[in-house]
Design a protein that fits this description.
32% of the residues lie in helices and 28% in strands. By secondary structure, the chain is α/β, with parallel strands linked by helices. The protein folds into 2 domains: 2-112, Rossmann fold, CATH 3.40.50; 118-264, Dihydrodipicolinate Reductase, domain 2. The strands form 2 sheets. The chain has an 8-stranded mixed beta sheet with strand order 8-9-10-7-11-12-13-14. Strands 3-2-1-4-5-6 form a 6-stranded parallel beta sheet, with helices on both faces. The longest helix is centred in the C-terminal third of the chain and has 15 residues, at 292-306. The N and C termini lie far apart (43 Å).
Length: 310
């Protein structure tokens, strides 16, 4: 299988490293704007070269505002797609991409890897398999941007509005997995802005309420929490579910029982599961856990939160 990477920043390198470990016999290429040596991947520098290698799969890992431009060029050349989350920073060109994906019968997976997190899978499994009435759910993601954009956070795309930075898009995993588990809300109320002293031009805080018939969801995202926290809690009429995604703790408390499970979590876990799923998708063994159409619905919810879509 021939695989091309567009964008070799931290997430692009991570996907390449894991793919190379899992599938060492694949042929890997990197699309580059400038020529330089000492790269472990074969380098290509033009769309003519892209076409000539007849690639099977493209990883779109460049800044968010460039995702659809590069995905479109690949789809026109009949290349299957892995698009890093979020799909884009706007809904422009989405219909055109969907046209070429359908025309060329391409497989597409969008990189919301928390759908592969064991805690999120357990929560979804519980919700899907019981008759509990969910009353309220909450999700929290807080981290310190300088710690995870340590190559100078002020110049990363997270800090730049035009490139699709800001917590609404950049930290949209929580919004996506809540929509995956509970569907699209009837009403959305979002409040976001920049409140910390971080040297960025994007929002560093989001508070959002998702209102459904019979339940409500609350999500918090931020860039400024000095010590990371990533948790989800679900209140039903029968139980309280709690998940700590960083430390791998999952508990279910009811009137009759109190169980806590410790799940092994390591940094590459969700990515390994996601990329194994991706190759299975290309081989016809599965349906995409996060399809293009599904990610468009997440994008529409993100645009509503930002007030760009009524």
């Amino acid at each position: 299988m021939k695989v091309i990477f567009f964008g070799m920043g931290s997430i692009g390198w991570r996907h390449y490293r894991i793919m190379q470990k899992l599938y060492p016999d694949f042929h890997y290429y990197a699309y580059k704007r400038e020529r330089y040596e000492n790269s472990p991947l074969a380098s290509i520098y033009s769309w003519d070269e892209v076409e000539s290698i007849n690639a099977d799969l493209a990883f779109i890992c460049n800044p968010t505002d460039k995702h659809l431009d590069f995905a479109l060029e690949c789809a026109k050349r009949k290349i299957n797609l892995f698009i890093e989350k979020p799909l884009s920073n706007s809904l422009e060109k989405v219909k055109e991409l969907m046209y070429y994906v359908n025309l060329n019968r391409l497989h597409v997976l969008v990189g919301y890897n928390l759908r592969f997190h064991p805690i999120i899978e357990k929560i979804k499994g519980y919700i899907d398999s019981t008759n509990d009435h969910v009353i309220r759910f909450s999700a929290y993601c807080g981290s310190y941007l300088p710690d995870w954009r340590n190559n100078d956070y002020k110049n990363s795309y997270s800090a730049k509005r035009a490139q699709g930075g800001g917590v609404v898009l950049d930290l949209s995993h929580e919004i996506d997995y809540c929509r995956w588990i509970w569907g699209n809300p009837e009403k959305v109320i979002g409040c976001y802005g920049k409140y910390s002293e971080l040297e960025i031009e994007t929002e560093d805080n989001l508070e959002v309420i998702l209102q459904y018939r019979g339940k409500v969801g609350v999500i918090h995202l931020d860039y400024y929490r000095l010590y990371p926290r990533r948790e989800v809690e679900v209140l039903t009429d029968q139980a309280v579910l709690f998940g700590d995604l960083i430390n791998g703790i999952f508990s279910i408390k009811t009137r009759q029982s109190d169980t806590t499970e410790h799940v092994r979590i390591y940094p590459d876990l969700t990515y390994e599961k996601q990329l194994t799923h991706l190759v299975g998708l290309l081989e016809g063994n599965s349906e995409p856990r996060c399809s293009l159409e599904d990610s468009v619905e997440t994008m529409q919810l993100l645009m509503k939160i930002k007030g760009d879509l009524l």
